[in-house]
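Complex record, two chains
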Amino acid sequence: MIGLIIKDLINLKKLSKIYLLILLFYFIVSIAGGNQDMFGGMIVMLAVMIPITALSYDEKNKWDRYALTMPLMRGTIVLSKYILGLIFLIAAFTLAFITNIIFTEIILYENLMINLTTFSVGIIMISFILPIILKFGVEKGRILMMIVIFTPVAIIVMLPKLGIPAPEQETIEMFLKYLPVAAIITYVLSILVSVSIYKKKEF
Amino acid sequence: MEYALQLINVTKQYKDFKLDNINIKLPQGCIMGFVGENGAGKSTTIKLILDLINRDRGQITVLGKDNKIDFNSIKENIGVVMDESSFPDNLNAKEINKFMKRIYKTWDEDKFFKLLKQFSIAEDKSIKDYSRGMKMKFSIAVSLSHDSKILIMDEATSGLDPIVREEILDIFLEFIQDESNSIFISSHIISDLEKICDYITFIHRGKVVFSEPKDELLEKYGILKCSEKELEKIEVSAVKGIRKNKFGVEALVFKNKIKGSYVIDKANIEDIMLFHVKEQVL
């Protein structure tokens, strides 16, 4: 397991300069624009991209069929990608949380809630994307991935137009409070689904 | 006898191809060459052995373990070389060593770097900049750098120049010096296999045509060159395959069944293979 994560980290290191540049860019833009939340959101998106990128490298190198000849269980190979995603999401959360403390006057509770929300959204996104990619491959998965991401957004945008009233502030707050729990449950379910997909996969 | 690798009635059905009732037994300490034309089912068989694809029927044991039950317990002892490199191609040998030693408990760092030196492979050059021969040698180095007792190789010498092939064959012979080690190697370069193998398994259109000790094959068969009339006098059961040309016929025959004063030439593995296929076509 550790070996696989080290492999992905070394592999991703080659992209680290680009990632750091993007990070810096969004940081400056959000500081200049006075919108810290955008920075938080962007780094979560970057973190979500990490396990996807790692999977696309594996696919390009035909790594899986070779990894499966090593003393690794199929489940371990899948789990390593989820752990990779989690590591980067926690890093993104921490970074956004700390920059908020340093550069804004946002109160601690709000800081925590905002970043927990973006963190949870990241977790949920990975939960939906990874099984799709494992099932269909990165190329086909990419299109489905877009559908998965944009459908909820489209629905939310469409709701008021359909005459459905926006929920009360209280309802939203309640929802946000339980979101992290829901996210973790989704993540675990997603792992189970992915493992069962991967176990049936032929290489 | 202990078998390093055993396939019993293994069947895998695809829409347009069937791997049909494959039976292979590789005794420990031996090298088996797995030959057949492109698309005969060599890679499919190897994938089945490695449990990369599911079989429909049959049983496969590697080093005595069923590959569907406790395959993971012996993976430390299986060295695999695929037909093309499957390593993250923008990493170099040093970086690959870093994570491989966390994957294999028996990973031998010193041996790995020693092999790289022996193969003159640069440690800090990315895999993607390697030539095909270097990639192959690199894969072989990796397969030998943990506690491998069996090497399973798919087309490990194809596409390489004769000098590199010779080098690789020497490494295999060195590996097999330890009598508990075995090699299963597929190739369509028959001459390579003829040099090193103890057993030859010939697969054709998804079926095993023969799987026998090489020496027995060479001993058993001979090539008879004669006229068509002469051939008619020979017992049908003595002839395995016929090839006609304008000077007469060439036939692959069982040497011990031919009586009388015929000139029988030696047959090599390639002849034996070709005549077997010929017979099936007719």
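Note: The interface with chain A takes residues 47, 50-54, 72, 75-76, 78, 80, 82, 84-91, 95, 98-105, 152 of chain B (CB under 8 Å).
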